[in-house]
Amino acid sequence: MQYFHFPSVNIRSISQIIKASLISLGILSLNVSASNFEQCQVSFKESASELGYSDYITNDVINALSPIKRVKQLDNNQAEFSETFAEYINKRVTDYRVREGKKKLNQHKELLKELTKKYGIPAQYLVAFWGLETNYGGYKGKISVLNAIATLACDKRRSRYFTGELFKLFDLIDSKRVAVEQLKGSWAGAMGHMQFMPTALKAYGLDGDNDGRVDVWESEADALTSAANYLHQIGWHTNQRWGREVKLPENFDYTQVEQDKFYPLNNFKNLGITTVYQQPLANYKINAELFLPAGHHGPAFLVYPNFKVIMKWNLSKNYATAVGLLSDRLVGAKKQTYDPLDKKQRYTREQLKLLQAKLQSLGYKTGKPDGILGPNSRKAIRSFQLANQLVADAYPSLAVFNAVELDKTAIN
């Protein structure tokens, strides 16, 4: 069970505790106008006062908040959802990151050994997260975390989530676990070497260097220890890898496998899938999911339960694959470079929005059109492909656009 900390000062009723719980869980958002930040601040102050936060929070901290326009632009154009798989991986799993990551493995050899023993997280994964998040501390972000999170909390798109994060940040400040002056990070409010959100920092932050405080900005030991604790607590499977790239046989029957669904590994072996070196898959009792980041035009991966754990850190399959590939490179795997997707098979976020809307109108449930290729969209695309004798790879290919009578070239 996860326990929530609430400030002990001036909490006057059970209803206040319930409201604080709902805010922390992201179930309740404040009644704010996305176009009126000042009114949003008023709502923050009212709720903070009701919930018993200090005068420092209700007056000084909240009064000093200001919106950051660029944050909303970045939120709507995240690389995880705007770049192709090849673009994303080739930019992140680089020779530089591999070279520097190996240095970090050696530099923190004893600490990482202890963390692996205690938490069951292999060292190369912790270092891979570190490399992807901040280039091993090279860039931890310079944006005001308070203002970034407040900006997103006042935006209707993800108000509930970021309201919860903002109030967790208030908890951290009120309990003196962090100081306002040190709260610099990413546009989304992530902080320190490993880019923890306030909720994660509050729940899983640990003192790795035994100096009596948790400082994920300056202490690499604190950051790595906290990351190991976090991954352990959210369900990392000890002695299991993240997944692997595989090779599909010619004329592979895509109707036999759904995207976003796990099957026993033996099922894939029976379908003729092999390692990239065309060796048989192991007779290992584990469930796996087939991931086709560019449909049948690109590479194929079998991913295991730890892949889903990585996605709890960042809800992007491209990100999770990058962590896996970088961790493999750090322990000697061969370099893999992925060819750019043919321009005809690429899609923009706006194009995908229109495809989602079109499929929705045809009775295929994609959810609200948002231009993000998530599980609902993949399922809808695959259902449409099956009904129209197309390759059922759940990818928004040119063939799918043509079949629904959408002209991609006319969509900016």
From TrEMBL:
Xref: InterPro entries: Lysozyme-like_dom_sf, MltB-like, MltB_2, Peptidoglycan-bd-like, PGBD-like_sf, PGBDSf, SLT_2
Species per Swiss-Prot/TrEMBL record: Thalassotalea piscium
Domain (Transglycosylase SLT) ranges: 37-328
Coiled-coil region list: none
Name of the featured protein: Membrane-bound lytic murein transglycosylase B
Gene Ontology MF annotations: peptidoglycan lytic transglycosylase activity
Alphabetized SUPFAM superfamilies for the sequence: Lysozyme-like (SSF53955), PGBD-like (SSF47090)
Pfam families documented for this protein: PG_binding_1 (PF01471), SLT_2 (PF13406)
Gene Ontology BP terms: peptidoglycan catabolic process
All copies of domain Peptidoglycan binding-like, residue ranges: 349-402
